[in-house]
């Protein structure tokens, strides 16, 4: 019982680590909460701090989710890694180091999927990349890839995987509710590549 509680505490603390915030503070002397979208996650790190910092933030956010998902292995526990990983997602969203505020947990959630089922992770991330290349929107890519993950999980006949992916998808949509409004209004931020971005640039030439 104590080891189970310890796993969830460690998972939460791992999720609470905010690489985008610390990289901005220590290496760029910027608080990314004050710029761009104000989010402390990967997308705003790319936007405010640049490509190099964004890639590092993405990798670390992904890895902390993977580390959380591997805790049952470290503790020699039979508890499902997806359940332990949920604590990391809570930590990322409500970080103890940032007065219980945080990011949208997309990369961290993907990291948990990587620890639990690498093949499922590859499938979900492939959909994410495909949608990103078409829409040029990270928010749209996240919502569609997680929705697809719910559908795909049904073929794995893994009840825990399906339940957790449904919860994560609902959570991702909730955290992106302001993005949904901007998508509807045509004012959502885009990455500097992809089909949609190319079409939009051609229209303004």
From TrEMBL:
Q: Which UniProt keywords apply?
A: Cell membrane, Lipid biosynthesis, Lipid metabolism, Membrane, Phospholipid biosynthesis, Phospholipid metabolism, Transferase, Transmembrane, Transmembrane helix
- What does it catalyze? an acyl phosphate + sn-glycerol 3-phosphate = a 1-acyl-sn-glycero-3-phosphate + phosphate
Signal sequence residues? none
Annotated TM spans: 6-28, 48-73, 79-98, 119-148, 154-174
Q: Which SMART domains does this UniProt record tie to the protein? A: G3P_acyltransf
Q: How does it sit in the membrane?
A: Multi-pass membrane protein
Query: What is the annotated localization of this protein?
Result: Cell membrane
> Which pathway is this protein assigned to?
Lipid metabolism; phospholipid metabolism
Source domain of life: Bacteria
User: Which InterPro entries does the record cross-reference, listed alphabetically?
Assistant: G3P_acylTferase_PlsY
Q: What EC number(s) would the UniProt record show?
A: 2.3.1.275
What HAMAP family does the record tag this protein with? PlsY
Similarity field: Belongs to the PlsY family.
Q: How does it assemble?
A: Probably interacts with PlsX.
Matches recorded under PANTHER family: GLYCEROL-3-PHOSPHATE ACYLTRANSFERASE-RELATED, INNER MEMBRANE PROTEIN YGIH
Q: What does this protein do?
A: Catalyzes the transfer of an acyl group from acyl-phosphate (acyl-PO(4)) to glycerol-3-phosphate (G3P) to form lysophosphatidic acid (LPA). This enzyme utilizes acyl-phosphate as fatty acyl donor, but not acyl-CoA or acyl-ACP.
Protein name, per record: Glycerol-3-phosphate acyltransferase
Species assigned in the record: Leuconostoc gasicomitatum
